[in-house]
Each structure stands twice: as structure tokens, then as C-alpha cells.
């Protein structure tokens, strides 16, 4: 296990992604370095009111603590009470144009420590796409990029496992609907967890997912960035963004871990969209483009 190699990779990943996104947007990402009183810190890179992104953040964090929060031990109760080291890159991008999807990606590494015992480590992460107006070619492109990232590390079976896991994870049980069209999700990936074993293989898959992000998302954003839109589309975008907020605050493991571990609130909640709406018991008109999102794109299926 080499946590220094993971940290070096994550910092380089953040830098390369921000550089490409800034060039695509034409605006600047604010750099906000911070320290955590309980141990560690990070660098948050944020853009707001950019040329393309209404809001976006690419966050690196490396934190330590004396006790694992409940969200990190829910599936590993035997690790409760151990110290921890956690590092990762997490990003969420909210374009202004409703025809351009929101996207999320994160890759992370945990180590649970206890005096006199071997450290327990694992990787997690993934990426997923949240369109407001669905285009099949876009969704197929995104899933094809996800699949290509996984195939060298377990083939079709491993890809299917992580794709299905994503469909289950990014699901709002209280709404009985998917947040978006999925992608990849994995956790507990390591020496004694699920899936790939061995540090080099688990780290290799994690790097492959992180490196695949720009190629998975930017061609979609480029294809849709000039699509005309009006108030109807912006209104529906704001309504669907409400589902994004609900998921992040109720279910998202990263958000819960950050808040439970005393993390930096501004960096944790950088994922929130800037304009959101809720309305009571609303459903889209049958046969509309908005209804098509629910009927076609929010139903799990094989895209790649």
C-alpha cells in the first residue's frame, strides 16, 4: 500500500480536470485552500456564473481523524472506533443550458488504523450523468466511456457489477425514481472488500475511472452547449435539480461522511445547484419531452 502515490495522482487529476474545464468554459476557477482543525485539509476549485457552467466544483481533500464516522462503517461495523485517513477528488458540474446534463465524478481512498493492528484500506468512486432532456447518443457515449474504463480490470462481469451498483445507489427511494441515467459506482474495493483484490489492481481501476471522466463528459457538453432553450426548459431543470439536492442530503455517502466527520461545509456542499425549485405533486404532460425523461431515460437499461 502506497498512500503517497494515491495522493500524488489525485492532486494531478484535480489539476488536469480543472485546466480542461476552465478552457472549455472560458472562465476561471477560484482556488480555496483550507485546513481542517481535526487533521488534514484540501483544495477546493470552484466556478460560478461561468460562460458554460452555472456552478461547478472540483474538490481535493486529505483528512485524518481519530474515529471513523458512522457513514464510513455502515458496511464495516468491525472498523468502528478506528482512526482514519481519507483522500479523494470529487466534482459536480451544473451547466446553465438545460440541454446539457449535470455530471458527478469522484475517486477516493480510505485507510482505517488501530494501534497494534494492520491498516485496512479500500478505494471507492465512480461517475454518473444526470440529464434534464435525454439524448440517446449522449447517454450511450457516457456509458461506453465508463465501460472502456472498467474492461481492463475485470472485463464485462466487473463492468456489469459496477454499472448495476450505480443504478441501485443513485436511486431516490422516497421518490421511487432514479436520479439520472447512471454510470459507475464502487466502494469497499480493496484487499478485503468486494471486487478486485490487491492494491495495484484496485488503484489501477480507480485511476482508470478518474482518467476517463473528461472523455466521457466533455463531448456531450460540446454537442449540446449551443442548443437554444427558454423559460420552460430552465423551469424543468430547476425542478429536477431538486431531486439532486434531495439525494445529496439524504443518501450520498460522501456528503454524509464529510458532515459527520466535521468536514468543511462549503467544500462538502459545493455540489449543490445554484437555482432549484420544488412544486407540490407535479407531473409532466404526457408525451412531452419532460415526460420522456421519466419514461425512457430514468429507467435502468443497457446503454453500452
Q: How would you characterize the overall build of this protein?
A:
- By secondary structure, the protein is an alpha+beta fold.
- 41% of the residues lie in helices and 26% in strands.
- The protein has nine helices and nine strands.
- The strands form two sheets. It has a seven-stranded antiparallel β-sheet. A two-stranded antiparallel ribbon has the order 7-8.
- Strand 1 (30-35) and strand 2 (40-48) form a beta hairpin.
- Helix 1 (3-25) packs parallel to helix 5 (199-224).
- The longest helix is centred in the last third of the chain and has 26 residues, at 199-224.
- The chain is globular.
- It starts with a helix and ends in a 7-residue tail after the last helix.
- The record marks 174 as: Important for dimerization.
- Keywords: Cytoplasm, Heme biosynthesis, Metal-binding, Oxidoreductase, Porphyrin biosynthesis.
- Involved in the heme biosynthesis. Catalyzes the aerobic oxidative decarboxylation of propionate groups of rings A and B of coproporphyrinogen-III to yield the vinyl groups in protoporphyrinogen-IX.
- Belongs to the aerobic coproporphyrinogen-III oxidase family.
- Its cofactor is a divalent metal cation.
Layout: helices, strands, pairs:
Layout lengths: L2 H23 L4 E6 L4 E9 L4 E13 L4 H4 L9 E13 L6 E13 L2 E14 L5 H15 L4 H15 L1 E2 L4 E2 L3 E8 L9 H26 L6 H20 L2 H8 L4 H4 L20 H9 L7
Antiparallel strand pairs: 1-2, 2-3, 3-4, 4-5, 5-6, 6-9, 7-8
